């Protein structure tokens, strides 16, 4: 059983029927360098320890999660596409559901987990938003699939929480990343990419700002979260940029039937 103090509960506008949390690296059985609660099966950890860690989640969620095979893309797993495949992991970087107690899960270790809910609580979503997925529209695609599952749903009726990701003072990127976001306009580019002194073509990128701008462009105003940094907070979070070989924590969201 995971200590409730070892998980992060989002502070955001959401209906009582929607449950969500993000794990930290605390409370599991994995050993260095995956200590402790590594939930990523493909990170290089002992699979048996990962399975034990996933079992520890049983007391916190109503069903086994919908695990994704994340590929830094923009595809969204839906209830219909999951039925067609029969069993996971499902190759996608986001998922949506309108089914009670179907637990969506996103694994991260610097990329941004983003969770969504309608104000009515009839549809939820979760996305893996690294810079590749973010620049190629994974958030926009998630919102589109949510609206497909809830006819009449407007952007103003969607709330979003941005979970722990690498912070704007630690995310060093090159010109290729900056160019991937050119469609967001020069004003946003200048805010989100701060040139590094004495390092031509290198920038500090703000994933939270880039994601918020894309969500706002869709008409979504209820956006919370941000303010974390997986790179600097080694006590709570795994970070691929910091450690190279490391575990993965997870963000979960579902519609409760109770």
Overall description:
Helix content is 24%, strand content 24%. The protein is built from eight helices and 15 strands. The strands form four sheets. The protein has a six-stranded mixed beta sheet. Strands 1-2-15-7 form a four-stranded antiparallel beta sheet, with no helix packed on it. A hairpin with a 6-residue loop joins β12 (193-195) and β13 (202-205).
Topology summary:
Layout: E1 7-8, E2 18-23, H1 47-55, E3 68-69, E4 76-77, H2 79-85, E5 90-91, E6 94-97, E7 104-108, E8 112-118, E9 124-129, H3 131-135, H4 138-149, E10 158-162, E11 172-174, H5 175-180, H6 186-192, E12 193-195, E13 202-205, H7 207-217, E14 222-225, H8 240-243, E15 249-255
Parallel strand pairs: 3-5, 4-6, 10-14
Antiparallel strand pairs: 1-2, 2-15, 6-9, 7-15, 8-9, 8-10, 11-13, 12-13
Helix pairs in contact: 6-7
State Rg.
Answer: 18 Å
**How much of the sequence is in beta strands?**
15-25%
> What is the strand arrangement across the widest sheet?
4-6-9-8-10-14
CATH fold naming: CNF1/YfiH-like putative cysteine hydrolases
Largest sheet: 6 strands, mixed
Task: Name the helicity range.
Answer: 10-25%
Tally of distinct domains: 1
**Overall mean pLDDT score?**
95
What string, H for helix and E for strand, traces the elements in order? Answer: EEHEEHEEEEEHHEEHHEEHEHE
Number of helices: 8
- Overall SS class: alpha+beta
CATH architecture: 4-Layer Sandwich
CATH class: Alpha Beta
Alpha carbon gap, first and last residue: 21 Å
Stretches where pLDDT is under 50 for at least 5 consecutive residues are none
